[in-house]
Amino acid sequence: MSLFIILNSRGEFLDKQLNWVSADDASVIFNTPHRDVALNQLIELNARDIHLRARVVHCDSDGKGRPLLSSMADASTA
User: Fold this and answer.
1) Per residue in 23-50, pLDDT tens?
2) Contact between residue 68 and residue 18 where contact means Cβ atoms under 8 Å apart
3) What is the DSSP string of 15-36?
4) Per-domain residue ranges of the chain
5) Residue 46, SS3?
């Protein structure tokens, strides 16, 4: 299954509490199977912080529906 998550310019992920965290625990990372939901969340974040440099990233999920963050190491440096 494909998921969409939000990654900032420092390589941190948005969690479900709308805080920026490292990739230690995939179960707390904000994710959605719908790109438009992730984009709407990104727009809301940008409304609060106009200097935010974040993007929606496509990733795969594990068997339990959590994002596979190990494959995101390359995306955070891009």
Assistant:
1) 788 899 999 999 999 999 999 999 999 9
2) no
3) BTTS-EE-TT-GGGB--BS-HH
4) 2-70
5) helix
